[in-house]
Design brief:
The chain has 245 residues and is mainly alpha-helical. It is built from twelve helices and four strands; from the N terminus they run αααααααααααββββα.
Length: 245
């Protein structure tokens, strides 16, 4: 990995091991409890209904990704962060740069710097004028001794935005595609709405929207499934392979 990438990933608790990972994960996970989800439920439903109404108002044709799959998670992210929706274009650019394999390294790093500068400025705004949002609560409850390193907080916020935005948009598009390619499953779901929760779980498994993660290095020799992995060797875990086994 590039030096800049290692610096950017320093604040990602997904890359940490053991107790340090668990410590930061516990702080962040409080923002994604059932209680918090219920508080946001009505607002998310309103955003979804508004987007669907706008799609229907277009008449005979619409672009599912442009008109629904992309704006839905970006509007929800703005709601969670407590920022104006006018800022959503930055989320789009940053998320697109992360997954665009044709993008030059310089362009990818420029997008990362732009996003990091935005999140840094946003955190300072919330520090000066806190509100009822995720960043304000992280600042109030988890900074200082034993909390989240202030230098890592912009990276952490950016990681959560990226994890919730591009993955959700991609999953929405692929989920609809799967139902279009399997009309018998779509008909079954329409006839039995009670199957929705199971269908969502199955679509998450079927598409495995994050293909290869996490990345690890073996610290000692270990044998798994009859294969020897030696200390120092890199390990890529394929979530797709696991979910389709």
């Amino acid at each position: 990995s590039r030096p800049a990438q290692r610096e950017q990933e320093a604040g990602l608790f997904m890359r940490l091991d053991g107790a340090e990972h668990a410590r930061i994960r516990n702080m962040v996970s409080q923002e994604f409890t059932v209680r918090h989800a219920r508080v946001l439920h009505d607002d998310i439903l309103r955003i979804t209904d508004d987007l669907i109404d706008a799609v229907l108002a277009r008449g005979d044709s619409a672009d599912l990704i442009r008109d629904f799959a992309l704006p839905l998670p970006s509007r929800v992210i703005c709601l969670v962060l407590g920022v104006p929706y006018d800022d959503h274009e930055l989320f789009h650019r940053h998320a697109a740069s992360v997954v665009d394999l044709d993008l030059r390294v310089e362009e990818r790093e420029r997008a990362a710097r732009e996003a990091f500068a935005y999140y840094t400025e946003l955190i300072e705004r919330k520090r000066a004028a806190p509100g009822d949002d995720m960043i304000s609560r992280l600042l109030a409850d988890h900074t200082g001794p034993g909390g989240i390193d202030p230098d890592h907080l912009p990276v952490l916020v950016g990681a959560m935005v990226g994890a919730g935005f591009e993955t959700t948009a991609g999953q929405l598009g692929l989920g609809v595609l799967a139902l279009l390619l399997h009309p018998e499953q779509r008909a079954k779901l329409l006839q039995q709405p009670g199957l929705t929760d199971g269908a969502v779980e199955e679509l998450l498994r079927y598409w495995s929207i994050t293909a290869v993660d996490p990345r690890r290095v073996a610290v000692e020799d270990v044998e798994i499934g009859g294969r020897l992995i030696r200390a120092g060797e890199g390990v890529l875990l394929s979530l797709i392979a696991g979910n389709h086994d």
